[in-house]
Design a protein that fits this description.
It is a single chain. By secondary structure, the chain is an alpha+beta fold. It has a domain at 30-74: Thrombin, subunit H (Beta Barrel). It contains 2 helices and 3 strands. Strands 1-2-3 form a 3-stranded antiparallel sheet. The chain is elongated, with a radius of gyration of 21 Å.
Length: 79
């Protein structure tokens, strides 16, 4: 009985530790896109560095309840 409880406790600990350190799901624009429009108005030109270090040019825009952010003209393709 003690071995079963110990095994259960270890298993639960492993499950919790892997979910606690897994990457959170991303929703909304990246922080760099938000910062690119921090002092801009909707429709202003903007640019920011993408995930691969590439320079993305776009226009400040707001979708739904999101903050104003730089919407790239040619967004990188998602894998």
């Amino acid at each position: 009985m003690k071995k079963t409880l110990s095994l259960l406790a270890v298993s639960l600990g492993l499950i919790l530790s892997t979910t606690a350190f897994s990457a959170p799901e991303r929703h909304g624009p990246p922080q760099e896109a938000i910062e690119a429009c921090a002092s801009a108005d909707k429709g202003d030109s903007c640019s920011f560095s993408g995930r691969e270090g590439e320079k993305l040019k776009g226009v400040c825009d707001k979708r739904g309840d999101e903050q104003l952010s730089c919407a790239p003209e040619n967004p990188p393709k998602r894998q």
